[in-house]
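Protocol step 4 of 5: obtain the predicted structure for the target chain.
Materials: sequence only (see below). No template structures provided, no constraints applied. The aim of this step is simply to have a reference model before the mutagenesis design in step 5. Sequence pasted as it appears in the construct record:
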Amino acid sequence: MKNSYSIVIPAYNEEKRIGGTLESYFRHFKKSGMKFEIIVVCDGSDTTASIVKNFMKLRKGVRLIEFGRRLGKGRAVMEGLKHAAGDVVGFTDADGSVGPDNFLSMMEICRKSVDCIVIGSRNMEKSFVTKKQPAYRQLLSNVFSHYVNMLFGLGITDTQCGAKVMTRKMLSCLDGMKSAGFEFDAEMLWRIKKIGGKIIEFPVKWSHNEFSTFRVKTGPRMALKLMSIRLMG
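Step 4 output (structure tokens):
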């Protein structure tokens, strides 16, 4: 679809948040006048899929992809992107931590650029965090960003913000992806840089959500996985 946007939302057991996020994104993008689609990838066991199905009955342009097994955030995003029809595609978290106004702005920047990915950042001068993560999470996030920048030479402020948008050409980076979990973002940025894509950071308004599915114990596994990927080239 020319001049259209595809928004992928990975949703693992997101029954408490998916309805509000869908409503705000659908309403905002509908108001923009742009052609768009929202693709929800559901791989959990709660009522998330049912909520999405009910939402779809009243609104066109929303699709659901269901899996009966846990995919991990990275693989869920990749499955959604494989089905995306827009010429600008992106993904955002089901908790709505980055609002649709920022996400639409990122898509508009991407549409006017060539061979790029626009990524949300919580750490730029104009970024605004309305509700901060607990102190230990902030520390871990900062340490991880420094680690990723050192490992891959990305030179960016925030690899893990859940909002990312890219041109269709950048989807070719997914062919060699090895990550399935939360480390997916860092590997994807590295692969995009390797094929000559430009990484553009965008300062977002961001709010921490207490129901995050990320667990601290996941951090060391992410670091080891990325080290392995980097060594294999």
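Step 4 remarks: The longest strand covers residues 4-11. The chain has one domain: 4-232.
Proceed to step 5.
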